[in-house]
Amino acid sequence: MVTYMEQSxxxxxxxxxxxxxMFLYNSALKEVKTKVEILNxxxxxxxxxxxIEYVKARLKSPESIVKKLKRHGMETSIDNMVNHxxxxxxxxxxxxxxxxxxxxxxxxxxxRDLTVVSVKDYIKNPKESGYKSYHxxxxxxxxxSDRIVDTKVxxxxxxxxxxxxxxxxxxxxxxxxxxxxxxxxKDLRECSEIVSMLDAKMLQLNEAILEAKAAQSER
Length: 219
Ligand code: 0O2
Hints:
This protein has helices spanning 4-7, 9-12, 15-47, 62-71, 78-84, 98-109, 160-175, 182-218; strands spanning 52-59, 89-95, 115-121, 134-143, 148-159. Strands 1-2-5-4-3 form a five-stranded mixed β-sheet. Helix 7 runs antiparallel to helix 8 (182-218). Mean pLDDT is 90; it is low at 1-7. The protein contains eight helices and five strands. The radius of gyration is 20 Å and the shape is flat. The longest helix is centred in the C-terminal third of the chain and has 37 residues, at 182-218. The protein is an alpha+beta fold. It has a single domain (7-161), classed as Beta Polymerase, domain 2, CATH 3.30.460. The structure holds ligand 0O2. Ligand 0O2 is lined by residues 60, 64, 68, 86-87, 120, 127, 129, 131, 135, 166, 169-170.
């Protein structure tokens, strides 16, 4: 349970430093979201195809920040949050097919003003829970009037099916505060296998459709 006192702790360090910090993350979020949208529009222009179904951008709530710091056994402070929490600014990109994920990750990695700090491929190496998603931690330079601040943004890229699974698992996780009964965790792991099968089948089907269309236009 996070108390009101804890939530307002950050503000106790000075409303100005809290606002200044969140201003940076919010600006970074806008920058990265725009970049992703431009990549998607360009892809549509060149290939007449949108790899992205939708993009969600969010700033982590003070309550979630406090919880995460506690989980890591850290004191609640702006310094700790900036240095140890990577997903204060988070972008989630949801694609139709698994190969779109890697295509997008490559395009994002090539953006000259983004620095890729780390990558976690939970598609090739799913979490114990069955969680699958591709995570990139990037920094983007935020140009202020008197300085440039490299600011972290976590980008999560996943398919619609992976996103469906993750949102249900997230609800269950919070409902049971991380201690879901084993039969539920087992069912979730099985569903995660089904998600992988569905994603593979949908990708195959899409490739078959593209080949059939190409053969038709050659005739
Ligand atoms: P919330 O409530 O979504 O913000 P960590 O290992 O979490 O302490 P790190 O390095 O940021 O620190 O972890 P990672 O693996 O990059 O995960 C960051 C975010 O990915 C999580 O944020 C979740 O949003 C999502 N995620 C990771 N693992 C799972 C999982 O097993 N199930 C679901 N549904 N989502 C997951 P938060 O802050 O943990 O949670």
